[in-house]
């Protein structure tokens, strides 16, 4: 191999190495964030004078929880109580952490839990139920 061929071979090798190095640069990838589906659950029932009715639901991803009374009969203008909290499976009851005594038809009450888990919603009489009231609660959560 003469000196000219050796120079050409060295130059070609340098170009190939540089081209390969540039082409193999990779950027670290982050895994895609999970996508959680917004769930809507409806809970129908009947609350008696002075009564409370609770329903459990499971939050998979912390985020907004919104509750609304979406049906109320026989009087749709009653003011009711709504509570959010943790479900106690031992007593099958809702241990309320947040509540309002000013819930009305189609007005959302919400919270933002910090962790996934078993939560619950409760509706209760604030002194306005005369005999009993049929209701539907609608809960949206992740």
Search tags:
single chain, 142 residues, mainly beta, Jelly Rolls, 8 strands, elongated
Description of the molecule:
The chain is mainly beta. The protein has one domain (39-141): Jelly Rolls. The protein has one helix at 3-23, and strands at 39-48, 52-59, 65-73, 80-88, 93-103, 109-111, 117-124, 132-141. The strands form two sheets. Strands 1-8-3-6 form a four-stranded antiparallel beta sheet, with no helix packed on it.
Order of SSEs, N→C? HEEEEEEEE
Describe the strand arrangement of the main beta sheet, using strand numbers. Answer: 1-8-3-6
Low-confidence stretches: 3-19
Largest sheet composition: 4 strands, antiparallel
Number of strand elements: 8
Q: Strand pairing plus helix content: what structural class? A: mainly beta
CATH C-level: Mainly Beta
**What is the beta-strand fraction?**
over 45%
Tell the overall outline: elongated
Q: What count of structural domains? A: 1
Helix count, DSSP H or I runs of 4 or more residues = 1
- CATH structural architecture: Sandwich
- The gyration radius over C-alpha positions equals 31 Å
Level of helix content?
10-25%
Compute the separation of the termini in Å. Answer: 72 Å
Mean pLDDT: 86
CATH topology: Jelly Rolls
